[in-house]
Amino acid sequence: MASFFLIWTITWAVMYACVIPGKGALDKGPVLAVVYTVVVIVASCLFLRFNDHGWKAIACSRLESVAASDG
Asked: Which helix (H) or strand (E) element contains residue 34?
């Protein structure tokens, strides 16, 4: 769970830094969209790499989703 917060907090910080007003290529929407896409894909891959535990992760995730939905 700590890896989730660490990876996505860093991702948010990078994305926020890209949005801070300034002059340059990052002020253009299409460029910012490409940067955001790359950052999110990298963060997703990192999260999956650090949390790949085979079938245990799938079973755990199903249990957690049932517990979270009170069902």
From this structure: helix 29-50
Average pLDDT across each block of 10 residues of the chain; the chain has 71 residues. List them in order: 88 90 80 92 88 61 55 51
The pLDDT value given to residue 65 = 57
Produce one character per residue of 6-32: b if its CB has 16 or more CB atoms within 10 Å, e if not.
ebeeebeebeeeeeeeeeeeeeeeeee
Single-letter amino acid code for the residue at 18: C
* Among the listed residues 19, 47, 13, the one whose alpha carbon sits nearest the alpha carbon of residue 33: 19
Residue type, 71: G
